[in-house]
Amino acid sequence: MSALKTQTLGYPRIGREREMKRALERYWKDKIDGAALLQTLVDVELDAWSAQREAGIDYIGVGDATL
Questions:
Q1: N or C: which end of the chain has fewer CB within 10 A?
Q2: pLDDT grade for 1, boundaries at 50, 70 and 90
Q3: What is the pTM (predicted TM-score) of this model?
Q4: For residues 12 and 19, what is the distance between their CA atoms, to the nearest angstrom?
């Protein structure tokens, strides 16, 4: 019998402190450029992956980021 495995099918993409919402709003107001917006997206994704890994999730969903 195999061991039980865990998986996330989705994870909030907005960030722990709503970083993506604020970055998008700043981008729309021309307060940051596209590179800064994309860097925020990368930072939020890395944080989400780390949180799931630290929680012991075996299979972490990737590739679901969107703007």
A1: N
A2: low
A3: 0.84
A4: 11
Distance CA 29, CA 39 (A): 17
CA 3 to chain CA centroid, nearest Å: 28
CA distance 49 to 13: 11
- The tokens for 53 are 């890994």
d(C-alpha 51, C-alpha 12), whole Å: 11
C-alpha span between 42 and 64 (Å, rounded):
12
Cβ–Cβ under 8 Å, residues 9 and 58: no
31 has a pLDDT exceeding 90:
yes
Give the C-alpha separation, 6 to 21, whole Å: 29
Burial class (CB in 10 A: 0-12, 13-18, 19+), 40: buried
